[in-house]
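EI: anyone free to look at a 312-residue chain?
SC: sure, send it
EI:
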Amino acid sequence: MTNTPSVSSDSRKQFNDLVQSAAEAMKIDVRTCLECLKEMGVEPDDSDALELLRSEDVTDADGEKFFVSSGSVKIARFRKGWRILRGAQKQLLVEQAPTKDGLAQLAATLRPVSQYKDKELIEQYGEDCSSEILAELEKRSKGKKFVVFNKDGNVNVDATLTLLRQARKGSVTSTWLVDGTLKDVHPLGLFPKSKIEICPLFPEIVLIDGYSDRLKDTWKGIPMDVRIAVRVARDIGFIDINSKAHLARFMSDLRSVLNPKEWILSISPEIRKKYEELQEMNRLPILTKRPSLAKNGTADPFYVAKRGNCSY
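SC: here you go
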């Protein structure tokens, strides 16, 4: 009679803890996690369960087959939980054991934004900062403008910090002296270098990553000089913006021709003549602009003048 090696209590506890943590990471129950492992041949009662789970013979593809392909868990969640099961996360923590300063930095990162110091908020402020940072700065500034930028477009932290504290007291100014140079003071959400693009066919529409909601099509990949030619043709009546069929055909042709700008100018001699006149006078339409200010003084990136910032 063959004796099956018994599983030590420590080994079993370690296995159970791993399964529990992995199941939470994958957002599935422990029972489902155990069933997937059993399908792979990893039995929790086996003495070598942990060893087998972390063996080179068990691959990531094996785990994906029984967890993801079975429909039990999504791929991103699987990868997070699989790292735990394989012990990679534990190993990573051992290899990168945080120092005292590292722990302090981690604790600071986990604080709610409301507990950030003014300077910390300003240092994190930018075009890609979180909505929480924006909301907290808006709250502390009481909706008043206080941001100063350097010549390179980065926030001047010291000047902005001073003006934020003044804004909290109710003071506001439109300019501020920095090292002998007069700087404009900006509201939240308005950046000197940021620009928005305008739809050539519907100048009241702001493009979102190239997409025009009114046109139901994208201008992404179409050069700006081609868009300007489209705008000229549209403004003198050679593009029927009220016909969806016409617009669909036009956009399709625009992408298929070898030289789209020349193709547009060749639609009619009037288009070429108008384009060349405007070019000569340096008055071709401008299809980018900076965000405007709303009536309350805050940045409104979706306001566009009806003429689309066109100079003619």
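EI: Strands lie at 175-178, 181-184, 196-197, 211-212, 217-218, 288-289, 292-293, 299-300.
SC: 👍
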